[in-house]
Every structure is written in C-alpha cells, then in structure tokens.
Design brief:
The protein is α/β, with parallel strands linked by helices. The chain has helices spanning 23-30, 69-81, 100-109, 122-129, 161-165, 180-189, 219-226, and strands spanning 8-12, 34-37, 54-57, 60-61, 64-65, 86-90, 114-117, 143-147, 170-174, 197-202, 210-215, 233-236. The strands form 3 sheets. A 5-stranded parallel beta sheet has the order 3-2-6-1-7, sandwiched between helices. The relative contact order is 0.15.
C-alpha cells in the first residue's frame, strides 16, 4: 500500500500586514502540517498555523541566502512525502519573481500534488502603499514589470531593457536598488526624458521602510542620501509623481 502524500500549497502572502493574505491562503495555513516561509513574511502569520505544525524558515534574498533553491524544493518534497500538507508562504505572489514556478516544476517532477494560491505582488502593492497607482486614467494606461537582477548580462539588467524604456506607461523594477544609478542612466540613454518622475519604495515588511521621489536625473542621488536599504521597488513614469496617501477622518 503506497504512502499518502501531502499537498504543497504555494501561497502568496501579499505584502505588508498579515491581513493582506487571501482568505484561502489563511485557511490553508490554519490547517497545515508544516509551514515553509520566506523573508518578509508578517511574523503574525506564523501564529495562524496549528501549534503542532512544523515551522521552517527557508528565506532567500540577494546577498544573504539561507538555503539554495534546490534545498527548498527538496524540503517541500520531503515534507509532502511524509504525509504533511505544506503551506509554502511566499511574499507577494508566488509566480511574480518569487521562483514559485521552479518549486511547482520540482513538485510536479516528484509526483507531489500542489496548488498555487495567488497573492498580491509587491510590484503593485508596495507602490500602492506609498500612494502610487501603477495605472491611472489619463496618466498611465499600462504597466510593465521587470527584474533588474540577472546574472546573464554585463550590467545585470535584462537584454531587452532598452525596449522597456521605450514603452509607454509605468515601469516597475524589482531587485534593482544596487543598480539604480545604472538603471536611470540606461533609461535616459534609451530615450526617457531626464525629468521623468521616478520613485523608490521600500515598504511592506521591509526592515527600513522608506519612500523617495524624484526624477531619473536625481533619483539615484536622493536614494543614496536617504540611506534606503533593500528590498525596494523602483517605479518610473508619470504615475510615480502621484501621491494618493491614505485619508483620515477629521
């Protein structure tokens, strides 16, 4: 008789407060046998898992990796083969630069059942929390999300970066704080006006929240002067000049 496999749920935990997780994600977390979680997860979410559930930290960030992606995938397979339902908590959305696709492929190859539970991506949520809408009528009719961290090019930017610079709308760049000066220069060289609004937002569960606004001409210097630390989201385009802050009752 074959062993009963557990199911791995790739859960997007959203960005910021614990209650930004989806209802389905929370329900799965509350009945899991193990929770495997990343950096930047709201600590209160771990309290939602059953008292007897394993809690396994396997965060992974630029410059500070506690586990390789291969080790993470192997752990998910191991837990499921032990018969445990696993809540794999990932910041933002699992499939938006969260490497959820790699984990899904590994589970698929191992014959382990899994389900993807979408979450709110940092590409949209972090700018929104700072009052920046990535789309806005009459200002930005589209938005484009790209990584600014790839090992396949000399400066770490995608091969098609100049094409991104020529697109209308809002450009959102993830994992690019250390390359901000290069990003701004490349965008201007590709045709963006130096006075194009730009913003750098470190928010959600980032250890040092900050929002810096400027233009492509000065955003790198302003961000450096403010001492902004990763993780941060870079927003470029007219929408980055908007500041739709939370209103309060008087």
């Amino acid at each position: 008789m074959s062993a009963v496999l557990g199911t791995v749920y790739l859960v997007g935990a959203g960005c910021g407060q614990a209650d930004l997780i989806t209802v389905r994600g929370l329900r799965l977390l509350q009945r899991c046998g193990a929770v495997v979680y990343d950096d930047l997860i709201a600590p209160e979410l771990l309290d939602e898992a059953p008292a007897n559930a394993e809690r396994i930290y396997m965060g992974k960030r630029e410059g500070r990796h506690s586990a390789s992606q291969e080790a993470i995938c192997a752990k998910l397979v191991e837990l499921a083969r032990a018969g445990k339902d696993v809540a794999r908590l990932k910041g933002g959305d699992p499939f938006v630069f969260g490497r959820g696709g790699e984990e899904a492929l590994a589970l698929q190859a191992a014959g382990v059942p899994f389900e993807v539970v979408p979450g709110v991506t940092s590409a949209v949520a972090i700018p929104a929390l700072a009052g920046i809408p990535v789309t806005h009528r009459g200002v930005s009719q589209s938005f484009h999300v790209a990584t600014a961290h790839t090992a396949d090019t000399p400066d770490g930017l995608p091969d098609h970066f100049d094409d991104l610079a020529r697109l209308p709308g809002t450009l959102v760049l993830l994992m690019g704080l250390s390359r901000l000066e290069i990003i701004a220069r490349r965008l201007v060289e590709a045709g963006k006006a130096p006075d194009t609004p730009a913003a750098v937002v470190s928010g959600g569960n980032a250890p040092h929240p900050a929002t810096v606004r400027g233009t492509l001409a000065d955003i790198a210097a302003k961000t450096r002067a403010a001492g902004v630390l990763p993780p941060a989201v870079i927003v470029v385009g007219e929408a980055a000049a908007l500041e739709l802050s939370r209103s309060t009752k008087g």
